């Protein structure tokens, strides 16, 4: 900081030195006594040191205030656009400071206006898609009832495709909820077995139509979580397991909130595992079979973080995949 101060205030240091040298030259040329020169130089030096000391103090205070401003406008600051420049910059002291202060005011006001406009547009978009999701469910329900009137292989195939459409509609709703600024968590105590069986029942038609064997045993115990976000996590993993498996899906759980979902599908390559939760990443299997949108596991990961569920993946090509979930203790999720 001292180096910066000396660099920015070198004129205040060089000017007195130049004056002293000029006076010394004058005294020396005219062969005058040096005592008055020395006395005046000492007094001038004391005054200069005091002035420079005061300026250094002001410089340090200004640097600290600017550091506060910088820390307040970082992305992780709680209120970026609510920052008032007057709080940190103090009183105006020069025309330059007034101009910079006015620029800050204008930028702050513009940022506040843009933030408000963004929030309004986002709210309108959320309202539109939420209404669209609920409205599209009506024709889906009508089509499902119509297809169930006659049990034929073709109708069962169409029902399976209709279920996939409904899953994508649900994915849109989850996407909106996860990006919403509000907090719609409903944390309650649920029987772990009921949560798992509800998701299994939802996919029962896919298990049957694709001739996939389900292995699951009842589990005791309760867990505190949000039902819809937990369903988003478990159902996305189940959907992938059914989509890629060859013969079976095995679900194991215990009363400590650990759930293990295993399939005997093609597996996931070691290079793909670190990226499967990235938005839009489909991996080798998704690119080869054109079955993946790259959004399912991304939404699954975000929903898991929202309810503090830990996800671990163990897989090798040709040996299937195991997704392990660890539901948090009650205290952790409430925190």
From TrEMBL:
Keyword Cell membrane found: yes
Assigned EC number: 2.7.13.3
Reactions it catalyzes: ATP + protein L-histidine = ADP + protein N-phospho-L-histidine
Xref: InterPro entries: BphY/WalK/GraS-like, HATPase_C_sf, HATPase_dom, His_kinase_dom, Sig_transdc_His_kin-like_C
Compartment annotation: Cell membrane
SUPFAM superfamilies cross-referenced by the UniProt entry: ATPase domain of HSP90 chaperone/DNA topoisomerase II/histidine kinase
One Gene Ontology molecular-function label: phosphorelay sensor kinase activity
One BP term from GO: cellular response to phosphate starvation
Histidine kinase domain span: 131-331
One GO CC term on file: plasma membrane
Residue intervals passing through the bilayer: 12-30, 36-56
Top EC group: transferase
Membrane topology reported for the UniProt record: Multi-pass membrane protein
Keywords, comma-separated and alphabetical: Cell membrane, Kinase, Membrane, Transferase, Transmembrane, Transmembrane helix, Two-component regulatory system
Protein's name in the database: histidine kinase
The species this protein was found in: Mogibacterium kristiansenii
